[in-house]
Amino acid sequence: MKISLVTPAGKQSRSGNRATASRWARIFRDLGYKVRISVEDDGADADMMVAVHAWRSAESIDRFASAHPDRPLVVTLSGTDIYRFQDSHPEPTHASMEKATALVCLHDLVHRAIPKQFHRKLHVIHQSAPPLPRPRAPSKRNFDVCVVGHLREEKDSLRAALAARLAPPESRLRVIHLGKAHDEAWAREGAAEAARNPRYFWRGETPGWMVRRMFSQCHAMVISSRMEGGANVVSESIAAGLPVIASYIDGNVGLLGDDYDGYYPVEDEAALAKVLTRVETDPSFLKRLGEQCRARAPLFEPALERSAWTRLLATL
Predict the structure, then answer these.
(1) What letter would DSSP give residue 133?
(2) The CATH number of the domain where 233 resides is what?
């Protein structure tokens, strides 16, 4: 069987969409399928299409559904599909969801945000991540927290930097940010913040191996997003044994659980600063977050993601 795997992220992109598509392509090939990854495809020679992003891949979805109404079509809902484009571009977004044979989502609370008529199509498949090859060895000189993600509006990318400004003078806190700027305006903002904030270090876009090295050296990871479809950086951090500090949004709660202790109100740098101070000064609290993350780790094992796709593809 041939699968057309469509993603809006190009081959050279290090975005989450591309990483997701590449990992899924490996899973499909291991299961015996032939896979073609493209940014835009009509799926003319494909037996099935898996499209990452309902709105951005809407044209490819429409062409495949029109040409092959009897062939399986899987649409993956991104964070912007769920929490932005349903409102700003409802017709093409919901049309993609209507044409889909199955909808894949990446966290447990997506059903709360999409129309009820699509619930029967919804399948939760958590993104997996491998553990680190060796135990973490956080810095003893500094208290380092990392932010991993491109600088863009949806990520509320500089919130951790703003929180770091509020750290007490005796704090050893450093925020190390890995990710490229979405555009020139964000590049200027990131550079300006790094220049005026001695606790903020923006490293730009980095390869995956460098992210994993950073996980091994940091004490915690901050995900400050305004919206998320189920960020792979959360599962990567949990698999690495790195405690997570997260904005309280469905996309994070749907991965970490509602009883997780490491949340702060979205867009609130004062509240985030308090959490950062607590994890730095209260070892028992940091240990508690680590224990809670380890309890969630089985959800993100590669074998579980593979088996979820095996079951879904078998039904299609």
Answers:
(1) S
(2) 3.40.50.2000
Structural element, H or E, at residue 283: helix 283-296
Query: 164 with 149: CB under 8 angstroms?
Result: no
pLDDT 10s digits, 218-261: 999 999 999 999 999 999 999 999 999 999 999 999 999 999 99
Token duo for residue 230: 């189920």
Which residues, in sequence order, are CB contacts of 129 under 8 Å at separation 6+?
232, 235, 236, 238, 239, 240, 300, 302
Backbone torsions φ then ψ of 112, nearest 5 degrees? -75, -15
Q: Is residue 18 very low, low, confident or very high in pLDDT (cuts 50, 70, 90)? A: confident
Phi, psi of 143, rounded to the nearest 5 degrees: -105, 95
Answer whether 300's CB lies under 8 Å from 238's CB. Answer: yes
User: How many angstroms separate the CA atoms of 212 and 110, rounded?
Assistant: 28
Residues 254 and 292 in one domain: yes
Structure tokens belonging to residue 82: 């769920």
Contact status, residue 4 vs residue 49, Cβ threshold 8 Å: yes
> Are residues 119 and 24 part of one domain?
yes
Q: What pTM did the predictor assign?
A: 0.94
- Sequence letter at residue 259: D
CB 208 within 8 A of CB 236: no
Helix (H, G, I), strand (E, B) or coil at 307: helix
